[in-house]
Design brief:
The complex is a heterodimer of chains A (225) and B (229). Chain A has 225 residues and is mainly alpha-helical. Chain A is built from ten helices and no strands. Chain A has a single domain, classed as MetI-like (MetI-like fold, Orthogonal Bundle). Classes of the chains: A mainly alpha (225), B alpha/beta (229).
């Protein structure tokens, strides 16, 4: 096991996993919140648009989404984050498109988790908010969403854990995260139980605390009714 | 270099494996083909799920610690596939500032990273994904074993669009993976490979599978099998 750490930068690879996870989590939380609001809004077009997004993205394999990002959007449509003259053009665009793909995919799951949170808020509260003259936006911001987030913490934690593990798919578009390094080690040293254990353990170290934290948070922050 | 077409298996590796099996007394019809993904090859052999692996399997010292090799039955080399109208790339020395494409974690990808500083490398899960990127000028070259490149250059939808540079810069000796220490089987396989070369079946397999791509085997071919350890 020491040999693996000596010859390969395992920590840097897991650093990239963490980097992808953090930025994709932020992106998917923002996009997912917008989608959730669309899906519970009083405007029919927005509701249908939201449902269409969820049903399309959630039912598309992540591999396909990432491949579309890199081959379709980047290489064929030439949508690039850094100019082609950059000496790290391939690497930077790969990482950023991976974050976009991961965020777009997981936003669908964040949205559904949040919507389940919205459902924990009794309908009477929404009616009360509207009856004292709050607009839809105000009632969402001041009454519904704060409670919805607190009610949705446990499912949001599951989405974050799934996102952490799903970053491994980014290796298929060449982002040098943990599973990419695992492929290198297997190619050079042949597959062994140790290699799998090191990487499995790495992911457990990343995800187990998240699970414990979110379970504790969901207990502490749940709205007592 | 093996491909499943319908229910038939074709390719250079398949022809070599079939020939060896016949020499060992197994009819082509009695062979059970098992797909051997890179990460599972050693495990497939050491657990006895397969008797031999014939799959562009380069002989390396790290692998010899887990399994034994017969052969080599072919010597390939890392090369470059570029757009047909691109004359700026003539070999590994002209790659500075260029963008390359290969498979995540592959030996070819690692060679490029180490030997050619200043080159950018796009890695994908399979070589097939490099082709659209190459055709759309996103990357300038695809790099891996010349045998694999020859196959892509001759693919119907890309005919005439790509060319193989023809300047190999590594040596990949394809061997037959066997259970570690099975010297008796190794001797038999080596005898079969030697016979395949002398009776012309080896050349025929090359012509059938790689000939349409205009591929000529490089130096060191046909190879003499190593002594069995």
């Amino acid at each position: 096991m020491g040999e693996i750490f000596e010859n390969y930068d395992v920590l840097a690879a897991f650093g990239m996993t963490l980097y992808l996870t953090v930025f994709a989590a932020i992106g998917s939380l923002l996009l997912g919140t917008v989608l959730a609001v669309m899906r519970v809004s009083p405007v029919g077009v927005l509701r249908r648009l939201g449902s269409f997004y969820i049903n399309t993205v959630r039912n598309t394999p992540l591999t396909l989404i990432l491949l579309f990002c890199i081959l379709g959007a980047f290489y064929i449509l030439k949508l690039e984050f850094t100019p082609a003259s950059s000496p790290t053009w391939v690497r930077d665009n790969g990482i950023r498109w991976a974050i976009v793909g991961l965020a777009v995919y997981h936003a669908a799951f964040v949205c559904e988790a949040l919507r389940s949170g919205v459902n924990t808020v009794p309908a009477g509260q929404a009616e009360a908010a509207r009856s004292i003259g709050l607009t839809f936006a105000q009632s969402m911001r001041e009454v519904i969403l704060p409670q919805a987030f607190r009610g949705a913490i446990a499912p949001l934690g599951s989405v974050l854990i799934a996102l952490t593990k799903n970053t491994t798919v980014a290796s298929i578009i060449g982002v040098a995260e943990a599973s990419g390094l695992m492929k290198v080690i297997i190619e050079n040293q042949t597959a062994s139980v140790t290699v799998f254990l090191v990487f499995a353990l790495g992911f457990v170290i990343l995800t187990l605390p998240v699970g414990i934290l979110f379970t504790a948070l969901s207990r502490r922050l749940a709205v007592k009714r | 270099m093996g491909l499943k077409k319908g229910t038939e298996y074709t390719g250079m590796d398949v022809d070599v494996a079939t020939y060896i099996a016949k020499e060992l007394g197994t009819d082509a019809a009695d062979i059970t083909w098992v797909q051997a993904p890179s990460a599972q090859r050693e495990t497939l052999i050491s657990t006895g799920q397969v008797d031999m692996v014939v799959a562009t399997y380069s002989i390396t010292d790290a692998r010899k610690e887990k399994i034994s090799f017969a052969g080599p039955y072919f010597v390939a080399g890392q090369d470059l596939l570029v757009r047909a109208d691109d004359s700026s790339i003539t070999g590994p020395d002209s790659l500075k500032g260029k963008k390359l494409c290969s498979v995540t974690g592959s030996t070819s990808a690692q060679n490029v990273k180490e030997d050619v500083p200043g080159v950018q490398l796009q890695e994908f899960a399979t070589y097939s994904e490099c082709l659209p990127a190459l055709a759309n000028k996103g990357v300038d070259a695809l790099t891996t074993d010349d045998t694999i490149l020859a196959g892509f250059a001759s693919q119907e939808e890309y005919k005439g669009k790509f060319k193989v540079v023809g300047q190999t810069f590594s040596e990949e000796r394809y061997g037959v993976g066997l259970k570690k220490g099975d010297t008796a089987l190794c001797e038999k396989v080596n005898a079969a490979i030697t016979k395949m070369v002398t009776d012309g079946a080896w050349q025929k397999a090359i012509d059938d599978n790689l000939g349409p791509a205009g591929y000529k085997p490089g130096a060191g071919n046909p190879p003499t099998p190593d002594a069995c350890a």
